[in-house]
Fold this sequence. Notes:
Layout: E1 2-10, H1 17-28, E2 41-47, H2 53-64, E3 70-75
Antiparallel strand pairs: 1-2, 1-3
Amino acid sequence: MAKVVVNVMPKAEILDPQGQAVLRALGRIGVNGVEDVRQGKRFEIEVDDTVSDDELKRVAETLLANMVIEDFEVVR
């Protein structure tokens, strides 16, 4: 079995209210110098050798990411 990681992030042009809330909270707890925060999702999937890169891409596109507002990266 191999572990595959799929990282899903909001597209750069999409507002990220959760990331902005974290950014504001950093200032309240005294952490300065952070210019931006983007919050995403991480999926860890265990697969065997029969699962192809194309199948993993299809899983990410159809189930894990909203392709209108999110980008993804599959890391084997």
